[in-house]
Amino acid sequence: MATRKDDLLWKGVIEDVFDDFLRFFIPDADDIFDFNRAPLFLDKEMEQLFPPEDDEYSPKVVDKLAQVFTKEGREEWILCHVEVQGRYQKDFEERMYRYYARIFDKYSRNITAFALFTEASIKPRPDTYQREFLGTRLLYKFNAYKIATENDEELLASSNPFALVVAVAKTAFAGRNIPDSQERDELLLNLKRPLARELLLKDIPKDKVRVLMNFLRYYVRFDNEEFSRIFDREVEELTERTDVMGIEQLLLDRAKKQGEKQGELKGELRERAKAEAKILDEKKNIARAMKADSMPVTQISKFTGLSAEEITEL
Predict the structure, then answer these.
(1) In whole angstroms, how large is the CA radius of gyration of the chain?
(2) Contact of 17 with 305, CB cutoff 8 Å
(3) What is the dihedral of CA 68, 70, 74, 79, to 10 degrees?
(4) What percent of the chain has a predicted confidence (pLDDT) above 70?
(5) Exposure of 81 by Cβ count < 10 A (0-12 exposed, 13-18 middle, 19+ buried)?
(6) What are phi and psi of 237, to 5 degrees?
(7) HSE (CB half, 13 Å, CA atoms) of 152?
(8) Which of 81, 109, 286, 294 is the most exposed place for a label (fewest CB within 10 A)?
(9) Residue 2 pLDDT class (50, 70, 90 cuts)
(10) Phi and psi, residue 181, nearest 5°
(11) Phi, psi (degrees; rounded to nearest 5) at 216
């Protein structure tokens, strides 16, 4: 069953690799979008149109509305709707249409919509909503994508970082029907190892490696905390073997090889500080969600790296 932690993880990873998200679903995305201009995520606009529901039985979804820029200089909107590992809602396609209609009515923008189904079922889901009455017909079609039907080998062979996000989400299905938690954790550990290796060996920017590794750590969860410690130790060892440098080492090495001025290096280090602050905020958001689920402080600290004092103050 979906949890708030899953919601937060999906929100974070979609924002952090949104350019790769678009490239994953739109083959000619680089010809359409100006990726030198960062997307603007319109969370406030979404909340105004669709206030969050506190009911624990309400559909578990993640909605992201992003303003992107084309190479022609136009502003377009992307609606990303994720059904987070929950039961399929029979009125889903109608809900997708209502989202489109309200956004268009309020802002009169071109919109393309994506629906991601993260459930384990491979049953096809609709990508169309239609109504007809006395000669009047409405037909709304959106992009629908089921991660459960994707091919594992193709995902791992892809150079697109979002393909690894999908591979991680598929891994979370493993062992769902295994009653013994020890056996299930062993299975998940054996599946997470090659994913971590692929992530570290691929030519992916270091800031995205951090994001994807955190998604792998926290989305595919062990029942036994000891397996989390084992996985973290193996990642550390793998990181050393593959010579993945820390960001500070990377900047210094780059400066040495390219003859950068000291002022340029300091500028990059300032960017590093900003990135670290963003990562800290993400950790705190995950910790808040874990506290809301009454998880022990020690476990939250292990998952997020925050101290007990920092977690208590949240």
Answers:
(1) 21
(2) no
(3) -30
(4) 80
(5) buried
(6) -65, -40
(7) 11
(8) 294
(9) very low
(10) -65, -35
(11) -65, -40
Q: Report the alpha-carbon distance of residue 224 to residue 196 in Å, rounded.
A: 19
Evaluated on CA atoms 9, 15, 16, 18, the torsion sign reads positive
The pair of three-digit structure tokens given for residue 268, joined into one six-digit string: 């990059």
Helices (H), 72-204: 92-107, 152-157, 161-171, 181-201
Give the contacts of 222 (CB within 8 A, at least 6 positions apart). 185, 188, 189, 228, 231
Residue 68 near residue 76, CB atoms below 8 Å: yes
Q: Tell me the pLDDT tens digit for each residue of 129-146.
A: 999 999 999 999 999 899
Which ranges of 55-112 would DSSP assign to H, the alpha helix? 92-107
Cα–Cα distance between 48 and 96 in angstroms, integer? 17
Higher per-residue confidence, 108 vs 269: 108
| Residue 251: predicted pLDDT | 47
Rounded CA-CA distance 242/260 in Å is 26
**Which tokens sit at 49?**
């149109």
pLDDT of residue 255: 54
Helix (H) or strand (E) holding 8: helix 4-16
Q: Kindly report, residue by residue over 26-45, the tens digit of the pLDDT.
A: 999 999 999 999 898 887 87
Mean pLDDT is lowest, of 61-65, 128-132, 280-284, 301-305, for: 301-305
Torsion sign across C-alpha atoms 144, 161, 158, 199: negative
Output the pLDDT for position 46.
Answer: 79
